[in-house]
Amino acid sequence: MNDNKAMNRAADNIRILAASMVEKAKSGHPGGAMGGADFINVLFSEYLVFDPAQPTWAGRDRFFLDPGHMSPMLYSALALCGKFTIDELKSFRQWGSPTPGHPERDVERGIENTSGPLGQGHTFAAGAAVAEKFLEARLGKEVMQHKIYAYISDGGIQEEISQGVGRIAGNLGLNNLIMFYDSNDIQLSTECGVVMSEDTAAKYKAWGWNVLSCNGNDVDDIRKALDAALAEKERPTLIIGNTVMGKGALQNDGSSYEHDIRTHGAPLGGDAYKNTINNLGGDVENPFVIFPEVEEMYAKRIKELETIVAKRHAEEEKWAKENPEKAKQMEEWFSGKAPKIDWTGITQKADAATRAASATCLSLLAEQVPNMICSSADLSNSDKTDGFLKKTKSIVRNDFSGAFFQAGVSELTMACMCIGMMLHGGVVTAMGTFFVFSDYMKPAVRLAALMQVPVKFIWSHDAFRVGEDGPTHEPVEQEAQIRLMEKLQNHASKDAVRVFRPADVEETTICWQMAMENVDTPTALILSRQNIKNLPEGNNYADTRKGAYVVKETAKDYDVILLASGSEVSTLLAGAELLEKDGVKMRIVSCPSEGLFRRQSAEYQESVLPKGAKIFGMTAGLPVTLEGLVGANGKVFGLNSFGFSAPYTVLDEKLGFTAQNVYEQVKAFLA
Predict the structure, then answer these.
(1) Are 162 and 152 in contact (CB under 8 A)?
(2) Would you call 108 a catalytic residue per the annotation?
(3) Which pTM does this prediction carry?
(4) With the C-alpha atoms ordered 528, 534, 536, 540, is the resulting torsion angle positive or negative?
């Protein structure tokens, strides 16, 4: 334990660096970083266990930052740990810098998660805590004995997602989760009291949390709270740290700048910045300095960690010798490689719904991927994730031997927690809900894409054919939305999201195979509620892997190409039978993934959809979904309104998704 004078000096060092980073960049958020410096300093210099020589060590404690705008605080603390250089701090928020305005996942440098949209960061942490418990149940305490720390602000507490994660973490008794709530009563445009008057401590206690309070700017108080949190055996812990926004900041005239809204989201500026740096013991002419005594203190901590982790590694080596099979499993699970799956025994029921085909695949995965966790937002018997559940049991408090995560009715929380499980490492996650409710999940899908987390999104009830449930449950614009993200690439030039909408049960199997092989990016599977006829006998399903392919051709010198994804392919095939009787020559193309198709060679794309060809597309969504594929000479028949409440067969008729209407539309198009 360090003496408090040295600890306070280190916290002030973090404040100086954070304020100076924002000042040099001429943008950023200094106040929160300055207020949180004491907690982050205590955590990183005395409590957080990590391996200085092996940053990705599976047994490390993990720290998840929720308020990403407080990145200067995190970067400064990590600089004291030797993870960032002074020059990198100086390049804060600049092009190509490793210190962006909001932290982006970089485990080698100690950043476990990308953060920015408030609320998601601490939810990732709760997911990581579930993963740690899940793996402990399978591997043992010797290798899974770490803690998950989260840091949340007033804004994150206000975001609706905090309600979901508070409920779930308390219900599951995640005693390995310790969350610090930086309660400074100031937010970007107002004092917190203007928008909230709830009893936060009572709220978390009602959810089953261990709730502690401390002076978040007092070293001894923070230590006392952390010690109590580490001793907790039954519940997750919330430490409410009452902190001072802009601690140590002075205005232009030398008066206090603490507890001032203006320090939240803008540089201190002018004499206020100079007075603040002087007040904190820094040099205005050279503020980007790690004080020698602080450098010495953190070097001492690194030495302590070397001793701590050496002991832990020895325990792990002993465990590995005694449990060679488990050790091999653990290595495979944390490798980041796709799991080995034998798909040869899978048999799909012909002409079934693709959600049912997905259930068959999930049943196989439950048996063959022992580190897989599947989830559903209270819809497992409808989105058919129960195919997985039937081969395992639910994860419950005090028993994490099951592999099904019951999230309840909370799609965004479910998505973020499943992402957090994968950020922890060692597990594969999939989650299901109705496609229309993917709207609740979009922020999480986006961050998963940014972080390259290969979670699997299972979205069933893919079209207006939800029928009697009516327009609230009938996705129309959702496919166009996710297809827009399908066109993006992440910073590593990988697909942002892989999106598959299979045309029948056999395509569904191939799409699930590709989903499990994809370790670079999230995958979305969009599945039908209703039964779909299988594609023609002899169809080359292997070409599903190319994103789009020819499923039938009536003549080489065809007059028109008919194009669709999902259930509309079978509608086109039915219409093609009528057109063929009328002498129309056709090629029918299934396109489960435009993104994957666009990754194929130009020659292949031209061979399937030649430039200048007349292409008729059909989609149960917005026409724009296929417009990029049909081209200038094409036409798309789709929906331009919300759905209606009626049996799906009636809707097919009323909305024009019939063989007869395909016939009429194509004839008119060719004319």
Answers:
(1) yes
(2) no
(3) 0.98
(4) positive
